């Protein structure tokens, strides 16, 4: 048990270091392996939930997954076996809903495209990837950028090309200039933040820094801008205290910056949602 707990904790810590999309599904899979194999102690599960809360606090699905585990423990089941059965069912459902939501979003997105469409996207999102692959018969090409400093845009371009989709990869700074040749812009979201109480806005979403520029360029060009996200990305009020946008190591941008140079490396930004306007959510339950 102790060794299995350490392995599960190591899996979550590895996810914390890995900025790729799909972290919530990988974390849920790691938890499911652990829970299936052992009658986990509530203390171990609470520690794993706490590790999830710390792993990537700007990614709402990981916070929601941690909340799922915490609630299962707090319900104080009558036996370890009951806790095990309940968690297995909840974790399976969580993963199934993520997969089902991606397929539903893909269908909704494809229905909004005309044949021969050019779609522009930014960074890497498993939801956006699934939507583009699902709509490949309607696509003429996809325009994306490198997405520095992690270069996840190259991964997206490679996976789209393997699916038979034509791709144009450009530098990040060049991407806003390509909006006018696109029929639509589609991005993912790491979190959907509700509007403050009493506000008339539609809230905000969190995505890679640089997304706001694309949204504004799309508005000026009259291009539809879609945020593809499922409900696992919605941050509930109970978890707002754990949410934060972190600064990443400056060494990712400049490994040996000279004295007097402060390197700031922030991945994400908050962008306002405008329902029916420049930033329309395409979402599905998860």
Low-confidence stretches: none
Q: Return the structural class.
A: alpha/beta
Strand content: 15-25%
Principal-axis shape: globular
SSE string, helix = H, strand = E?
HHHHHEHEHEEEEHEEE
Which helices and strands, and how do they pair?
Blueprint: H1 2-17, H2 23-37, H3 42-55, H4 60-74, H5 80-111, E1 117-121, H6 126-134, E2 139-145, H7 152-162, E3 167-170, E4 184-187, E5 191-193, E6 204-208, H8 211-221, E7 225-230, E8 268-272, E9 280-284
Parallel strand pairs: 1-2, 1-4, 2-3, 4-7, 7-9
Antiparallel strand pairs: 5-6, 6-8
Task: Give structural notes.
- The chain is an alpha/beta fold.
- The protein has eight helices and nine strands.
- The chain has helices at residues 2-17, 23-37, 42-55, 60-74, 80-111, 126-134, 152-162, 211-221; strands spanning 117-121, 139-145, 167-170, 184-187, 191-193, 204-208, 225-230, 268-272, 280-284.
- The strands form two sheets. Strands 3-2-1-4-7-9 form a six-stranded parallel sheet, with helices on both faces.
- It is globular, with a radius of gyration of 20 Å.
- The two termini are 31 Å apart.
- The mean pLDDT is 89.
List its salient traits.
single chain, 286 residues, alpha/beta, six-stranded parallel sheet, three-stranded antiparallel sheet, 8 helices, 43% helix
Summarize the model shown:
The chain has eight helices and nine strands. The chain has helices at residues 2-17, 23-37, 42-55, 60-74, 80-111, 126-134, 152-162, 211-221; strands spanning 117-121, 139-145, 167-170, 184-187, 191-193, 204-208, 225-230, 268-272, 280-284.
